[in-house]
Amino acid sequence: EIVLTQSPGTLSLSPGERATLSCRASQSVSSSYLAWYQQKPGQAPRLLIYGASRRATGIPDRFSGSGSGTDFTLTISRLEPEDFAVYYCQQYGSSPFTFGPGTKVDIK
Amino acid sequence: QVQLVESGGGLVKPGGSLRLSCAASGFTFSDYYMSWIRQAPGKGLEWVSYISSTSSSYTNYADSVKGRFTISRDNAKNSLDLQMNSLRAEDTAVYYCARVAEGGAFDIWGQGTMVTVSS
């Protein structure tokens, strides 16, 4: 099973700042089958990034993903008020399809 | 619009059974793999199961539910089910159904249905 570790656990930032979230895998994620999701309280997760770097439909270009192998990054270039949420990475290259524990981005 | 709506959650005693359903609309259901993902209260996301798109219906399960849960689908009715048997307290969670995009990520999610296993 591929274990995903996310850091930091919590990121306290102000609107307009840049957010950099890390996801590290215990073994290489095949074909960059790595996704990022955003979840707000009481809501279902929303797909932001798939294939490590491809934005899902309707996702603003302030969200970007990068990385390969075991190290991946989600960057939010300038935080908008609606971006404060929990972010999960997930690998879907090998079963079981595992999620990271999440990074909470909250308002400083 | 593209939509998934889960139903069937509720309170069940340990050892009991429950059947969840997910109604799909706004897309060609039979073209897509589908999956169930759960989230225990205050915790992260856990993939539970997926099923292939065709009538041959290849399935896969997380070890934590293998042998107890069964995923199925009815493409004629645009519906996805999860039969949950021998339920345990640790199965308590919000259960989401999700569409598996062509690349494999979960691109459409339902609003979730809560399952509580407690005596």
Give a concise summary.
The complex is a heterodimer of chains A (about 110) and B (about 120). Chain A is an all-beta fold and about 110 residues long.
Q: H/E order of the elements of chain A?
A: EEEEEEEEEE
Radius of gyration of chain A: 13 Å
Mean pLDDT of chain B: 96
SS element count, helices of chain B: 0
Cα distance, first to last residue of chain A? 35 Å
Secondary-structure content class of chain B? mainly beta
Give the total of beta strands of chain B: 11
Q: Which regions of chain A contain 5 or more consecutive residues with pLDDT less than 50?
A: none
Category by helix and strand content of chain A: mainly beta
What is the percentage of strand-forming residues of chain B?
A: over 45%
* Helix-strand string of chain B: EEEEEEEEEEE
Indicate the overall shape of chain A: globular
Q: How large a portion of the residues of chain A is in β-strands, by DSSP E? A: over 45%
Largest sheet of chain B: 7 strands, mixed
Largest interface: A-B, 26 and 19 residues
**Tertiary shape of chain B:** globular
> How much helix, percentage-wise, in residues of chain A?
under 10%
Chain-averaged pLDDT of chain A:
96
How large, in whole angstroms, is the Cα Rg of chain B? 13 Å
Tell me the distance between the termini of chain B: 39 Å
Describe this structure in words.
Chain A has 108 residues and is mostly beta strands. Chain A has no helices and 10 strands. Chain A has strands at residues 4-7, 10-13, 19-25, 34-39, 46-50, 54-55, 63-68, 71-76, 86-91, 103-107. In chain A, strand 7 and strand 8 (71-76) form a beta hairpin. The termini of chain A are far apart. Chain B contains no helices and 11 strands. Chain B has strands spanning 3-7, 10-12, 18-25, 34-39, 45-51, 59-61, 69-74, 79-84, 93-100, 106-109, 113-117. In chain B, the strands form 2 sheets. In chain B, strands 2, 4, 5, 6, 9, 10 and 11 form a 7-stranded mixed beta sheet that branches. Classes of the chains: A mainly beta (108), B mainly beta (119). Chains A and B meet through strand 4 and strand 5 of A and strand 5 and strand 10 of B.
